[in-house]
Amino acid sequence: MPEMVTTNILLVEDDRVDVMNVQRSFKRANITNPIFVAGNGLEALEILRGESEAVEMPKLRRLILLDLNMPKMGGIEFLEELRKDPELRPIPVIVLTTSDQERDRVEAYNFNVAGYILKPVTFIQFAEVMAALNRYWTLSEIP
Hints:
alpha/beta; 5-stranded parallel sheet; 5 helices
């Protein structure tokens, strides 16, 4: 059996209720991966580059859960900046959003996201999605 390795999750989300839903879903599914939270794309870039005074995130085995609709710097703008940075480019990103717009989906995949998931309406569905994502990143070879 492979050794369990911790994946550090950066949740880029401005909605406190959705942040709490992710945290509760992790707890419900016994997911022990650390969650770091950024309220927008600018904060996320600071955290990933080690420039944040508030959050210190390890530089190895990182995965980003990204909302698209945020203030200051939205998800698509964040993806554009992330993919321009040679050090951050390899980090896998899964979009977790309410946007069902085809344009948003196409733009996100143009920036090589690992997945595009619509936020479920109920907490039970949300928890099921988080459990499925946990299986994904547990099996993935994330650098």
